[in-house]
Amino acid sequence: MEQNMPRILIIEDTFDTLELLEFKLNESPFLCHYASNGETGLTMWREARASGRPYSLILLDIHLRGGRDGFSITREIRSSGDTVPIVYLTATSVSREEARARGAQDVWLKPRIMTENIGEKIAAALSPATSSFI
Q: What is the pTM of this model?
């Protein structure tokens, strides 16, 4: 059954946010993998591509501590030719237009996203109609 589930990579360095996302997505129809920093997230993304089981969606914190930020991670993913939908997670104001200009599909604001039905938002982000511009 896990083979047919959309694979979601969540790169988020704030423990409370990561823990809440994990809790909210525990019963979801998605196979979620979590990385607490950018380098680990990139390694997981590379390994998934190399294994032939790439991620269906990446949720990516923009302001990661410890070197890589979400923008540089997006540049690396896009420079590889990968068109996986990327959604930025941020507590700061970044417009959807700026997110798209940087290679992401959308931007979701924290903490507001934590009060919404994130499963529905992920399903919409996975829809071809919402990701066709990438």
A: 0.89
**Cβ 125 vs Cβ 131: under 8 Å:** yes
Of the CATH numbers 3.90.550.10, 3.40.50.620, 3.40.50.2300, 3.30.70.260, which one belongs to the domain with range 2-129? 3.40.50.2300
Q: List the one residue out of 8, 17, 1 whose CA is nearest residue 114.
A: 17
Beta strand 86-90 with 57-61 is: parallel
pLDDT in tens, 58-101: 999 999 987 889 999 999 999 999 999 999 998 887 888 999 99
Q: Are 88 and 62 in contact (CB under 8 A)?
A: yes
